[in-house]
Amino acid sequence: MQQVSTRKRIWGWWFFDWASQPYHTLLVTFVFGPFFAAVATDHFIAQGLAGEAAKAEAQTIWSLCLTVTGLMIGLGAPFMGALADISGRRRPWIFAFSAMYVLGAAGLWFTDPGGSNLWWMLVSFGLGFIGAEFALIFVNAQLPSLAGRDDVGDVSGSGYAFGYLGGVLSLFIMLLLFVEQASGKTLIGLSPLFGLDPAAREGTRAVGPFTALWFALFMVPYFLWVREGRATGQRGTLGQAVALVVQSVKNLRHRVSLASYLGSSMLYRDALNGLYGFGGVYAKLVLGWQITLIGVFGIVAALAATVFCWLGGKADRRFGPKPVITVSILVLSLVCLTIVSMSRTQIYGIPLPEGSRLPDAVFFACGVLIGGFGGILQSASRSLMVRHTDPLKATESFGLYGLSGRATAFLAPALIGLATTVTGSARLGITPVIALFAAGLFLLFWVNGEGDQG
User: Fold this and answer.
1) Quick one: pLDDT at residue 1?
2) Percent of the chain scored above 90 by pLDDT?
3) Residue ranges covered by each domain of the chain
């Protein structure tokens, strides 16, 4: 009976990934992000900016949104994690952040295609994004209680694979039934469902409410099947939480492996988030793709991520998470170098014939690698953190992990925004991501692949 109960608990935990993934797949990367970039670009052109300058400005304000939300997540995560560990309760926090997710996503329906409320839509997007990321920290903290150290990588990888599969399905639905092309029809030639007006971009704007509804529906198995231990009966104060976090940070000087890992993951996860946050925007601004084509690109990337994450979990179980992370960083660095070195007219400095489709094919291949090895990198990182985690302080530990992932979450968007502004090029603006991957790989040298929990 216990085995059945454990299996259901793991499946419930996996359902969080299934429920939450569309925020990243649909909103951050493949539908809303490129849609926002297009709306913002047209808005700035209407205000008198030249085409390239308008694109750069659109990418800059998108980076500002990701910078601000990243700071808020990074600064708040460890303290809320400490409060949860003091009380022994995580579900109320997860429920509250789930509500933020739903409200923020649903609010994107009100995006004005004319660009009159750009900043309000960034606020709505940021609210949901903060909710999604905070909820993830508390859910990740439950991983050590689901499996032993030899199996935790497999469980983590399968969870990410299941989540990416949910992202693929949600993207299929949006592209086939809602998102309108220039013709006013969806990818399969239908009018957007429910009589949505393509002229007002209502099919594309429906991505917000759709994402909110998807999350609310598929979080039900999570809340039904994932239980937590008894509450401690204590009601922690903010002062206690601050003291715990300060002490945890001080203790890092005695834990070289953990400190190095937090620093390494801080940099390479920031780089990965930069790729995710600007991949669709790059396709729109540099390659001129329509949102439906970006969506097809997203399906290919997410399908790759589903398969790669599952295989990555098996590799994690056999070789351990550190070698898996190292290979993933190297592959993603090469992908970034290719993206920066490519435009419509050349690749690695080699001129291309006018109208060449090679950049499209290369970027599709890059999408497969970003989706596949990006998913593996996240899964193996979660696994390696478990090996450095005291189960009695899991939420606090994953709060520090969240802090390391978000303390400099402003860095990639800010550097991309700065590079974009300085160069006036959305393509060259991606360059700082390569340096972040390299720095993360350097610090990984001092990390014990078996952790420091014995």
Assistant:
1) 37
2) 30
3) 2-226+238-446
What the block records as the tokens of 375 is: 């998913």
- The first and second tokens of residue 120, run together, are 């309000």
In our burial notation (b when 16+ CB lie closer than 10 A, e otherwise), range 281-318 reads: bbbbbbbebebbbbbbbbbbbbbbbbbbbbebbebbbe
**Among 136, 164, 452, 427, which Cα is nearest to 313's?**
164
Phi then psi for residue 360, to 5 deg, are -65, -45
What is the chain's Cα-based Rg?
21
Alpha carbon distance 12, 146 (integer Å): 11
| Tokens coding 59 | 């990418």
Contact 394, 76 (CB under 8 A): no
Q: Which residues pair with 351 in a beta bridge?
A: 346
pTM score of the predicted model: 0.76
Count Cα atoms within 13 angstroms, Cβ side, for 154. 10
For 240, the token pair is 């206690």
Contact status, residue 398 vs residue 141, Cβ threshold 8 Å: yes
Instruction: Provide the pLDDT for residue 232.
Output: 46
The stretch 300-327 carries a mean pLDDT of: 85
**Residue 347: strand pairing partners:** 342, 350
- Residue-wise pLDDT for 89-126, tens only, equals 778 889 999 999 999 999 999 999 999 999 999 999 99
In this predicted model, what pLDDT tens digit does every residue of 117-161 receive, in sequence order? Answer: 999 999 999 999 999 988 987 887 787 777 666 677 778 778 878
Average of per-residue pLDDT across 234-255: 72
Spacing of C-alpha 362 from chain mean position:
23
Integer Cα distance of 337 and 300 in angstroms? 21
CATH superfamily of 2-226+238-446: MFS general substrate transporter like domains (1.20.1250.20)
The crossing angle, in degrees rounded to 10, of helices 2-22 and 152-177 is 40
Q: How far apart are the first and last CA of the chain?
A: 30
| CB-based contacts of 95, cutoff 8 Å, min separation 6 | 223
